[in-house]
Amino acid sequence: MIGSFGIPMLKGLEGFNRNWLRNDIPAGLSIAAVGLPSAIAYPAIAGLPPETGIYASIVAPIAYAIFGPSRLLVVGPDAATMTVLAAAMATIIAVEPAAAGVDRIAIASALALGVGVFCLAARFLRLGVVANFLSRPILVGFFAGVSLSILVGQINRFTGVKIESDGLFAPILEIVRKSASIHWLSLIFGLSMFVLLWVVRAARLKVPGPVLVVVVSVILSAVFDFQGRGIAVVGDIPHGLPRFSLPALYEMPLDKIVLGSAAVFLVSFGAGIVAARSFGTRAGQEVDANQELIGLGAANFAPGLFGSFPISVSDSRTAINMSAGGVSQAAGLVSAATLIAALVFLHSALRILPLPALAAILAMAAIGLIDVGELKKVWRISRMEFVFALITMWGAISFGVLNGVIVAIAATLVYLLRKTMYPRDSLLGRIEGREGFFDLARFPQARPQEGVAICLIQGNILFFNADYVRTRLLTIGTQLAQGTRSLLLDASAISHIDSTGAAALDVVAETLAKQNVTFAIADLNEESRELLDRAGVITALGPGNIFSDKDEAMAALKPARDAIQDKAEETNGPVQGHERREL
């Protein structure tokens, strides 16, 4: 169903059949079971109370079910988004003293609204391609750095010691200095729950590890009075439903809110769309990034209006939905209803949940962000991309997560520029008895054409690589075989030329003309031809030296080659062992 302005409505429930509930209800219950522990644990990363995670896990799936295009994707809190959110909030509070007195929940809600605005703006500008801006290797490296930041952030929950340092090594050194203050019972219990999670994962038990940890922790906390023994617990959780509220934006530094929202949006949407496409491939469904922007925008607006924080596509919840056989967004609605029931009826049990258990869940989630297999794959495929993955990982660790986003963007730009600054070139020739032109370096049987050199440039000619292209063409011009009087540029792989590129080609034509070498171009697209015409390059080359394809160019340049051959024969006599070949 399509609403106003082309916005999809209830597309994830399109064609709903009551028989689907046989699959969607169990799937929704499974999603809630897996999502509840993370919903309580993840807010701690940003210093938010646990109920905000439950609120986000309720309202976001409802909003996505209404506006999201996918039947299977499940949205909710995720560790990477929470880490970027924490960094953005810390920057806002640290830089603006006036914001220090503002409720942290209000700041998180404002950032969620900002992410929603960025999603919708990107959709209406059709900028879904921004999802491809952070490549898979860059994201893998960034998440590895984020995971280490999350792990370090759990030191205080494991040990009960307040850690004031930031970064990777400073908190470790601080806990070593404060080792006398470690609450050993908290540490032993937290590490025990972490081991339990490893055992569940290794044994591949059907019961999700976080669910088992929550159940065991609550039971032990009730039986042995963990709070009375000094182990920190979650504490009071509001047992009512989330309430509609607008954050007081007028009390916040809007410029910092905008920048923080942009950082969260970039990472959240970039990682979310990668996950969406991964699950879409498994389910045989196409993922439209521009349509997903609407669903994710709505799913971020909802938490922003109900006292929560930004969300993204949840890998774990979507995987559970698929494995449980969910067929529509009804599974997400069932999950939301289940969490509402948990909030109302399990309030007392959640209150005594030990914080070291949440630290264990977060630590395991952080380790899950380190995709060692993907890093090995990147290393095997491209050493350069592996280096950029390490750069982004180092940026997230050394400069903080928020600055790590900037490092990731910068690394992406450097990588893209490097790939385009030095376009490949090759000289072409013909193979006897075969149509077309072939790379002389790749095909030993290919032979250059007499009297003319054909150069293929595989890339655009723009301001940042124009000098390199000019130098390459002039170098080729100085190395032409004896008797070659034409250099033909094969522009079939050039999609765009700018004014700087046009000036570079003009210099090539002028320099070659002084060497009595004709510079010609073939297979030039219409846009680039018009630009070269406006720049006066075509006039300098001569309209007769611009050809629609290489065959036309060779036919036109043939008389010049024959004249060269005839002149050589008149001077020196027939060349022994040489036969003139027709095109």
The percent range for strand residues is 5-15%
- Secondary structure class reads mainly alpha
Morphology: elongated
Helix content: 55-70%
Major β-sheet profile? 6 strands, mixed
Average per-residue pLDDT, rounded, comes to: 86
Low-pLDDT windows of residues: 1-5, 563-583
Task: Count all strands and give the number.
Answer: 8
Distance between the termini: 59 Å
The tally of structural domains comes to: 2
Helix segment tally: 24
The strands making up the biggest β-sheet line up spatially as: 4-3-5-6-7-8
Rg calculated over all Cα atoms: 31 Å
Region (Disordered): 560-583
Biased composition (Basic and acidic residues): 560-570
Main location: membrane
Transmembrane segments: 27-48, 54-74, 81-99, 105-125, 137-155, 181-200, 207-224, 257-276, 326-346, 352-372, 384-417
